[in-house]
Every structure is written in structure tokens, then in C-alpha cells.
Amino acid sequence: MLAAFKLLTLKVHLQRRNKFVQIVFDQVSKEFGTQSIALSQVSFVIDSGELVLITGPSGSGKTTIMRLLIHDYTPEKGEIYWGEQPLTKLRSNQVPEHRRQIGVIFQDYKLLSELNVWENVALPLSIIGKDQVETESRVTDLLKLVGLTDKAHLFPSQLSGGEAQRISIARALAIGPSVIFADEPTGNLDPESSLEIVRLLRQINRLGTTVILATHDAVVLEFLKTQRRLSLAKGILANDSEPRPMPKRDLESDTDSVSTKLQSTKTITETIKVAKKAPEKPLELEVSEEEIGDQPTKSTPKVSVPKKPTHQKGKKS
Ligand SMILES: Nc1ncnc2c1ncn2[C@@H]1O[C@H](COP(=O)(O)OP(=O)(O)OP(=O)(O)O)[C@@H](O)[C@H]1O
Ligand SMILES: [Mg+2]
């Protein structure tokens, strides 16, 4: 249990790349052999900045949607658009950059047990080559955001389930994704910790990050009962509580957008350079007792920064 928190204001400099991406599933089917149809002709549109629940019983296709979105799976039929980019046309050298735009949160946290809390959150920043000053600043802000500044030196085995999940959320946010996909993030948690996680995800959404939350947790569904909900049943989208209009596309413009993406390497490199130069917008986050729940009442201890992890085993999950 965590102590009750006083109202507190944090300035969080989540230096997000200011990307606004609409996600479109257009008649998407995913099959595993002829016997297992994970998704069947699923269509929906998620606008940038939405918080959307994906719900349905075990085996209904929630995780499959996440795997398709990160281009871990490709659909047998239909198309998934990430903004203007059809994901079936993504080249293999574009996949890492695509995945960096999606922070995935798993039921079992997937923290690296040999790294401490600080190092787990810093790992994605280290992988993309952020310098130590920026890494320190971001990790400090993210630990404040999730209320675990005082646990920076603990290892995952020393955390409660709720704390471990908050750290995995901080890690997912580290490189400023446009979208967070939380796949049953409260599956291993008690109701109180579950609410804490959902409040945190809602707060992150209010910062401007699109949040997709796959769950069949009754506590979560009740807490977010007014939120848009996609209901799956045996791979079919049985209901979308607030359907968005499907953008009109013609094959011509798809071809155009693909050919635009397939510019020369030189042009792409220049585009990346320009994007890197663009000012990153610091975001201010008001975190209150009502929103996050528990925070320490004492003043937040200063975190001494551990050395950059040298043993970066495994990969960011
Ligand atoms: N790699 C795979 N190979 C074979 N079948 C798969 C694979 N991935 C998913 N499936 C099947 O697709 C269907 C949907 O699975 P999925 O994991 O998306 O369900 P889910 O809604 O996330 O379920 P849960 O709530 O249990 O996590 C299931 O019948 C599953 O067995
Ligand atoms: Mg699943």
C-alpha cells in the first residue's frame, strides 16, 4: 500500500516528438493457419490523442491488434495505416523507427531483472544514443511522474507489482512515443494498484499521448466506463462505442504515399536531420492526488545518478 499523497505539481519534460498519428485498421484479417482466425475484417480509426479501450474475452484478438500495430505480425487481408504509411509497405529498415513511436506495456512488466529501476528506465534512451545529461533529466522526470523517485536504486525483484508496472510505464515513455499500447497492464495487480495504473495512463493521455488499453479487467472497465470502447468477440469487432469516419483513400494516393516514403536514402537522412533539429516541446503535467493517487508526502529525495549501464542485455520490450 502506498501512503496518501498531497496535491503536488510536477513539471515533466517528456520531450516528445510532436507527432500526431491517426491509426486506421481497414478490413484487417489475421490468421494462423486455416484453423485459427485471430482477427476477421476488423476496421476502426483511432485519432491522435484518444484514449481507447480494447476489450473482449481471452483469445478475442486484443494482443494480435498490438502485434499488428508494431509490425510484429502482418495481416493476411486488409491494411493498417500509421498516419499515411500503410504498414504492409513498411521496409525492414523502417521497422525500428516505427516501433520507437509505440510504447508497449505488458501484463508481466518485462523489466530487466539485472538492471535497477533507474537503469531500466534509462535503457531505451541509451539505446538511441541520448547523452548522459539528457538521460538524467528525462529519467528524473519520469520517475517523478510515476511517483517512484525514491526507488531508483532498487531492482525489479524488490518492487511490488504496481511499482513494477509504473516503472514499465516510465520506460515505455522514455523516448517519447506517440502511442502507448497497454496490453492487460493490470492483469497481475490488485484492484487498488490497478486503479493507480489506470489513473496514470489517463494522465499520460491528457499529456497528449494516444493511449490504447487492452483489458478485460472489470475494475478498469468500470473506472473508464465513459471512454470509447472497441469490443472484440472471437476476432470480430462486435462494437465500437464511438466509431470514427474511415478516411477516404484511393489506390493512387496510397501509391503516392509509398513512393514518397521510398525516396532516396539521402532525402530520408535529411528529413531525419531536420526532425532532430526541431524544438522538442516540454510538457507540463499537473499531478494531483485525485489523478495519480499515492505519492510520498516527504519531499522527493534527490536521486544520485548511477553510471550509464554497461551491461545492456536483451532488448527493449
Ligand atoms: N502466434 C500465434 N500462433 C497461433 N495462433 C495465435 C498466435 N497468436 C495468436 N493466436 C491466436 O489468435 C487468437 C487471438 O489471440 P490474442 O492473443 O490476440 O487474444 P487476446 O484477446 O489477447 O487474449 P488474452 O486476453 O488471453 O490475452 C487466439 O485464438 C490465439 O490462439
Ligand atoms: Mg492478450
Q: How are the strands ordered across the major sheet?
A: 7-8-9-4-10-11
What is the CA-atom radius of gyration, in angstroms?
Answer: 20 Å
Which hetero ligands occur in this complex?
A: adenosine-5'-triphosphate, magnesium ion
Element string (H = helix, E = strand): EEEEHEEHEHHHEHEHEEHHEH
User: Class, according to the CATH hierarchy?
Assistant: Alpha Beta
Cα-to-Cα separation, first versus last residue: 27 Å
β-sheet strand percentage: 15-25%
CATH homologous superfamily label: P-loop containing nucleotide triphosphate hydrolases
Q: Count structural domains.
A: 1
Report the CATH topology name: Rossmann fold
- Major sheet characteristics: 6 strands, mixed
Integer average pLDDT: 81
Helix content: 25-40%
In DSSP terms (H or I, runs of 4 or more residues), the helix count works out at 10
By secondary-structure content and strand pairing, the structural class works out as alpha/beta
Shape: globular
Q: What's the number of extended β-strand segments?
A: 12
Question: Which quaternary structure do these chains form?
Answer: single chain
Low-confidence stretches: 1-16, 255-317
Give the name of the CATH architecture.
3-Layer(aba) Sandwich
